[in-house]
Amino acid sequence: MIVRISNIQALVYAVLALLLVSCEEQMSHNGKTPLVSVDKEFLYKEDVEHFVAANFPVADSARFANEYVQRWLEDELFYRMARRNVRNSKEVEQLVDNYRRSLLLNIYQDKLVNQRLNREISDAEIEAFYEQNKGLFLLDEPMVQGVFLKVSAKASKLSSVRKWMDEGSTEDIEKLEKYSLTNAIAYDYFVDGWRMLDAISARMPITSELLLKRLERDSFVEISDTGAVYLLNVTALLRKGEHKPLAMASDEIRALLVNSMKVNFVKEAKRDMYRQALESGEIKLYGTELLGPE
Known about the structure:
With 294 residues, this protein is an alpha+beta fold.
């Protein structure tokens, strides 16, 4: 997609005319078209087009291109002023060096981990961690499993639908699914998954607090309004503060275990490097109190 930058404000063109000096014609731009510049820093037409095309709709492309160019000019001018007025260059260089060091360490660490640590976390490991750390996995809100159906108040076979929903046998669910294809306003089968009770109550004319109280008395709930009938059969209910089921917590546990493996792997890699450097004489200790890592 080509973004046309034909209506950039007069300010941009004025800055372009003032700042593009004759020596710029002798500079190499690697085939790109200079749009504006500040000192020897250039913004190219192709870069603006690419950014705008990737982030904004065609209808607004010219306006966003104009805003992008103006922001670039303002930032470059402000940066030039900052360079002139921030005199403590040693402090800045130290910060840059610290950032560069941290960046290199992180990049190398990720590269090392990706190359050498590719073992999958097993289901047995996840289950063992879950059993040993159940207190870490508590629900912040009620969760349910079940079947939800919304139909028109004038829908046919409502008595049969109630029976299918309430009994919930395999045969009943098959009948319910066939019925929902042509009659349901909304149908959600989540017997094998979990839903937040708030998300279910949001689809019904009832608050989550009242819905929870009704479900505590009966797993089947029917509510009607002037236009629809809402049917909910809950096969499992977990209250706030109860333990998350293993299936719900497994992804979280896997991430925790992977991160722990990475931390331990990097720690051991650093120890190995230290030992090797000591043995090779690369490290010299000038005090007996420096014993190195355990």
